[in-house]
Write the structure tokens for this entry.
Amino acid sequence: MNVTRRTALLSIGAFGLAGCSTGSGVVAPSRSAGAAGLPADLRPAPNAAYDAWVRAFRARAGAQGLSEATLAAGFRGTGYLPGVVKRDRNQVEFSRTLEDYLSIAASDERVSKGRAAFARHRSTLDAVEARYGVAPEIVTAIWGLESFFGERRGNVPVVSATSTLAFDGRRGAFFEKQLVAALKILQSGDVAPADLKGSWAGAMGHTQFIPTSYQAFAVDFTGDGRRDIWSEDPTDSLASTAAYLSRNGWTKGLRWGREGPGPGRSITPQPGGPSFSVTSNFNAIKRYNNSDSYAIGVGHLADRIAGGGPLRGSFPPDRYGLTKDDRVALQQRLTAAGFDTGGADGVLGPKSQAAISAYQTSIGQEATGEPSVALLRRLGG
């Protein structure tokens, strides 16, 4: 399942870091916002070709076990979302450094919220561990990376999103499977049509399951007859995540790994940065998202939630000669000078780059948006 999940959720903003700071430029729509709170391009727009595609899909959907009543309810009020296509086509497989990734994944805010969520749901997490054998802090960390502990679960209608992407055709077969799965979820009665919402790519709930992964792994832990990953109560989502890991190789009682040497395989994801010794449970986390940075992010955030401290090792200066402390200082000084970076996390995302460009323009320099030691010094370093 790791391949399909990665196919759907290519960008770092879409998988794992929906709750990162505005300074990094990646923010998912809030689940609490209504449709009116969505950007204009994520609301249905007229498209005759899409309408024809939907008619053709509905004509053949019965062969996949979907009733006409389900199709009518599922497509009611839905439509073509131009912003979904735009986001899909504009995705770029880019790589952040591990240092930047962990600055977001294990930020002070995320650690603080994670510890509070862990304490608040400890009895549920312990019960989930008793059934599936997955450490509570690991489940909590995945929750934190996927939806900022439920605060940013997405508010895009899943049928609209998946049908738009199936119609668009770039990954049409994949997203038609997701559309069929989403409609079957409705048909099973796990969720009402109005509540079947998620990210622009169709990932749903507190821990961002795509529809086919939901079908394969979601569980009804509360025993109410529904596998409900959409409600404010995260119980079924947390249990479903543990079930996913359990069925993908998780070994009870085994750590994910640790910083530094120890039993297991040694990896150094960022040249010059800390090394990690990882176990088979590291690979189980990668089945959720096939990325070393993601798995280290989950493991390190889990350790911090459980009371551990920051990494002991340091990272080398970036290609501009700046350390993380330098980048934090640059963001702080730009903001103090009236050029808002949206936060000071040391990750120079789009908002920080825009602030640098604006400052460069203000002092008569070419607006490159690129940081430098000289720029830091000019701002008072």
